[in-house]
Amino acid sequence: MKINDEIIVNIEKITPKGEGLARFGEDKFVIFVKNALPDETIKIKITSKNKHYAKGEIIEIINPSKERIKPFCPLYNACGSCQMQICSYDYSTKLKEEILKDIFKQDENLILPIVKSPKTTCYRHKIQFPARETKNSKRVLLGYFKENSHDITNIKFCPIQPEIINNLTQFIRENYKLGCYDEKKHKGLLKNIVARISSSDNSILLTLVLNTNQEKFKQIKKEIISFAEKITKTFEEIKGIFVNFNDKKTNNILGETTIKITGCDFIIQKLNDKKLKIGAVSFFQVNPFASEKLFEIVKNNIKENSTILDAYGGVGAIGIFANNNAEKITLVEENKNAVQMAKENYELNNIENYEIFCDDAKKRFKIFKQEQKSFDYTILDPPRSGCEEEGLIDIASISKNIIYVSCNPITLKRDMEKLKELKFKPKFIQGLDLFPYTYHVETIILFEKE
Question: Tell me, what's the pLDDT at 68?
Fold first, then answer.
């Protein structure tokens, strides 16, 4: 088997990255196939190969899955973001359960039925679109990068985001005239747009990410302010517009500094009986409807009158939900803007039994260990990369129970094995669908100290 060979394969299962897995030949060589479903017989062309596996693209679906349907998004093939639109929503969540069972094989008996999202369209309330322009006509392009490339799919309609965002991005395409970023030349002004929307009242914070610094920005400030005023006059939902400076050659969307151009510093997101201030660059889950379910799961697994450590706490959302069962909440977050917002959110929800540390989580765990602090529950919600081993060792020494929330079950599995070594026993594994029609699955595990 070599590149460009055409072969027929049977798809066994879906991988954690949403690809179909097939095996070929006597040696059962692994092949990954995008847009394939289990139990399908498919003719593919080999597009890449190394000594461990190959990748193939579909030429013909000889025997389609009974679950296969036509994607409801017209840009499905061009965009590639919602990989599981080729099947029903119920079947997509079943596949996510199978992904978790495959990852957590030794603890499969602990896996609970996946919690589905209350909404499967118009659920994405944060968007991050790179901005580029066509070479000759200088037409503005806004959308997502095509899979494994930096070529933009110019998205004028996206069914998973609110309609107001489709209208806003089209307005920017038609009215923005100051030039977009050219990645190869590292020139051009507008790199990305970031919008955060409240599902409570559709209010929006818009951030323009610019390829410049604060000093150079003074030269174009009037033009940016004028453009911002055009946007706010057209869209009453826009409550604040910000500029973020990112003049580095990097894949990071945001730079370190953000300033407000006009309007408010925050929007209000209501979840059940709680209110949360969310800033333009604050971390908060993109699906507020499913987030309510996530926070409730965490809260319901904390006993009353408990001391709680909310690590990687962001704007305080999980801790605020868990407060009903808390004697005291200690939040640790390294982002200064998020810390300030967390303080305001505790006050907004009339919570007094808290303390907040603006610090790197791993460093703060070590300090707590040195101070011989102890918590009934530690809530961990780290980045996709998970926790560092040293941090887990310190967490284990100060915690009686750990509730681990992860957007990456692969790194969660790694950290789970370390926690087992540290005498923490998993009690359940709960998948939650924060990202309908994608392969992503949020996972919650409750650990109890033996």
Answer: 96
CATH of residue 354: 3.40.50.150
- What's residue 411's pLDDT? 96
Q: Of 232, 277, 240, 280, nearest to 262 (Cα)?
A: 240
**Listed residue (169, 184, 405) closest to 301, CA to CA:** 405
441 contacts 432 by C-beta, under 8 angstroms: yes
Q: Are residues 113 and 130 in the same domain?
A: no
Place of tokens 């408010």: 264
CA atoms within 13 A on the CB side of 237: 17
| Bridge partner residues of 425 (DSSP) | 448
**How far is the C-alpha of 322 from the C-alpha of 82, rounded, in Å?**
32
Over its C-alpha atoms, the chain yields an Rg (Å, rounded) of: 23
Polymer length of the chain: 450
Q: Are 204 and 195 in contact (CB under 8 A)?
A: yes
How far is the C-alpha of 411 from the C-alpha of 434, rounded, in Å? 18
* Joined tokens for residue 355: 């303390």
CA 181 – CA 185 distance, rounded (Å): 9
Q: Which are the contacts of 233, defined by CB distance < 8 A and separation ≥ 6?
A: none
Residue pair 317/295 in contact by the 8 Å Cβ criterion: yes
Q: Are 21 and 15 in contact (CB under 8 A)?
A: yes
Cα dihedral value 337, 339, 344, 350, nearest 10: 160
Q: Is the pTM of this model over 0.90?
A: yes
Interstrand relation of 238-245 and 257-263 (parallel, antiparallel or unpaired): antiparallel
Identify whether 230 is part of a domain.
yes
Full residue range of the structural domain in which residue 36 is found: 1-67
Per the listing, tokens 């408990």 go with: 306
- 3-state percent breakdown (helix, strand, coil) of the chain, nearest 5: 30, 35, 35
Strand partners, 136: none
Nearest of 315, 321, 311 to residue 351 by alpha carbon:
321
pLDDT of residue 46: 95
Which DSSP symbol is given to 46? E
Q: Are residues 364 and 408 in the same domain?
A: yes
Whether residue 425 sits in one domain with residue 291: yes
Cα(355)–Cα(328) distance, integer angstroms: 8
Average pLDDT of adjacent 10-residue blocks, the chain of 450 residues: 93 94 94 96 95 95 96 89 94 96 96 96 95 91 83 91 95 96 93 96 96 94 96 97 95 93 94 92 91 95 94 92 89 91 94 93 94 95 92 95 96 97 97 96 96
